[in-house]
Amino acid sequence: MMTTYKTIYKCGRCGTTSYQPVIGRDATGALRPTGQYRCTGCKVTFTEFKDWWGHDGAGHNAAQQPGLAAYPAVVG
Ligand SMILES: [Zn+2]
């Protein structure tokens, strides 16, 4: 069972409160962060948290960013 960190933030589309960093393979086959994140609910990908929330009201407080899922989303 996947463990995720719950946050006070949630997806503006599906209401899920966790997301995963998106990991992809580079030319050598190594797994590397792509700089994107993916909602664990509706699977929408985003690079700006405010795009996930659907608003930018809380996006300026770096100390209160949403929690990362325990396991990254591996693509490719
Ligand atoms: Zn979602």
How would you describe the overall organization of this protein?
It comes from Rhodoferax koreensis. This is C2H2-type domain-containing protein. Residues 39-60 form the C2H2-type domain. InterPro entries: Znf_C2H2_type. The protein is mostly beta strands. It has one domain. The chain is 7% helix and 26% strand. The chain has one helix and four strands, in the order E-E-E-H-E. The protein has one helix at 49-53, and strands spanning 19-25, 31-39, 45-46, 73-74. It has a four-stranded mixed β-sheet with strand order 3-2-1-4. A hairpin with a 5-residue loop joins strand 1 and strand 2 (31-39). The longest helix is centred in the C-terminal third of the chain and has 5 residues, at 49-53. Residues 59-64 have low confidence and may be disordered. Bound molecules: zinc ion. The site of zinc ion (ZN) has 8 residues, from loops.
Per-chain topology:
Blueprint lengths: L18 E7 L5 E9 L5 E2 L2 H5 L19 E2 L2
Parallel strand pairs: 1-4
Antiparallel strand pairs: 1-2, 2-3
The structure holds zinc ion.
Q: What attributes characterize this protein structure?
A:
1 helix; binds zinc ion; 4-stranded mixed sheet; Znf_C2H2_type; C2H2-type domain-containing protein; mainly beta; single chain; 76 residues
